[in-house]
């Protein structure tokens, strides 16, 4: 739809935009990113003809852009410029109506039903219809921004150029506006080029991103190609870490501050555990980076409190997570700061042990019920009753783990648990074969993220060796304790 070839342009003798080439397809949403002054707005202005191109060419639907009359171009291309603080005395409706000028033959004399429908639809889409008779200078910055998006939208041009459309908008209006724009791309085949400061929003909504540096294209491609830690750091000179969005296959960034809150060194060991009638409790002085399959706060996060709650073997609740959540609240724990697991095994049967390492240490806590032991390789053979009895394993590490090490720690621990069941000759009662676990085992790995770095935790690494040995020993002892208490 739009072809930009070796485009240069700007304000002074020296062009701001230098030798920029890219193409945008119909229905595509392209995000332009870059630090302050990198030339994003200037590029949009040169494309839209507000500033002249010094060299290069812009082709729209196969025709050179300079062959379009001003009005023809406005029917093809709507522009939302970067807004600055102005006093606007027009009403909202008047302002949005200005977007219809390319469709007029005589100024307002030919106002048609189509014009009216476009203006009302644009005001509805941007949620400004309720202000239609209000003067623009009586609206907040975000409300004014939405009115100008409505104006561009009322123009109904197949190509929309936006300069920071979410500037001034609260998060609800950011998503509402971008959802609306994106919908137009998907349903009506509208093409969007938009400047963004917010890298995460750009990644979420755009099909491709163009990252500018000093007026030139530094990176161009799908978000996963452009949003990489090192590339973003190099261009923006800010430390970032990328991570996946929870719902969309789009990378997101988190800023990494250079100023750390002063935090005294802390250490977690067996002395931080308490064994109560109803639960095993670990309380850390500072949050631990945690990965777990717990009932409350499963997944990854940072938590200070860890509970392994004992419920009766007859425990049966429709919504286990909700019940656990309210249990935490009624027992004085803060659910947002607590990882909660459940077991039918008495807290008195927990096995907790410290394992020193050269520069760090780990503490392992296991409760092990094996009444429902299962051979995972044969679990497909028959349906089983909802189980009670489970093996809950916690591995608390004084050390700084990579993401890889967290996952390897879970693998190593699982293998060590299975070996413990083998050692104890625990059988799957349904198949009579050696059990590998129970159907509801839970695992938690938590680390202080201080001190010694552990990039790996496989069986032959320093950390993996201690996890393997520790989980094996603690699981064996925990099984024996449970078996002797029920014998
Ligand atoms: N009206 C102007 N006259 C002269 N130079 C200008 C003008 N507007 C911008 N510039 C210069 O052009 C360069 C690029 O500015 P531009 O506004 O395109 O950057 P940007 O990437 O959009 O920045 P920001 O993120 O701050 O909006 C800057 O060095 C700026 O000083």
How do the helices and strands line up, and which of them pair or pack?
Elements: E1 2-9, E2 17-24, E3 29-33, H1 40-48, E4 53-60, E5 63-64, H2 70-76, E6 77-80, H3 92-97, H4 113-125, H5 141-154, E7 159-163, H6 171-188, E8 191-195, H7 199-205, E9 208-213, E10 216-221, H8 223-226, H9 229-236, E11 240-244, E12 251-255, E13 273-275, E14 279-292, E15 299-310, H10 320-330, E16 338-343, E17 351-356, E18 361-368, E19 391-398, E20 400-401, H11 403-423, E21 442-447, E22 453-454, H12 462-486
Parallel strand pairs: 3-8, 3-9, 6-7, 7-8, 15-16, 19-21, 20-22
Antiparallel strand pairs: 1-2, 1-4, 4-5, 9-10, 11-12, 13-14, 14-15, 14-21, 17-18, 18-19
Helix pairs in contact: 4-5, 11-12
Bound molecules: adenosine-5'-triphosphate.
Adenosine-5'-triphosphate binds next to helix 1.
Please count the helical segments: 12
Instruction: Assign the CATH superfamily of the largest domain.
Output: P-loop containing nucleotide triphosphate hydrolases
Beta-strand fraction estimate: 25-35%
CATH architecture of the largest domain: 3-Layer(aba) Sandwich
Bound molecules: adenosine-5'-triphosphate
Regions with little confidence, pLDDT below 50 for 5+ residues: none
Structural class by helix and strand composition:
alpha/beta
**Helix share of residues?**
25-40%
Number of domains: 2
Main beta sheet: 8 strands, mixed
Distance between the termini: 77 Å
CATH class descriptor of the largest domain: Alpha Beta
The averaged pLDDT comes out at: 91
Number of DSSP strand runs:
22
Shape: elongated
CATH fold call of the largest domain: Rossmann fold
Q: Give Rg in angstroms.
A: 31 Å
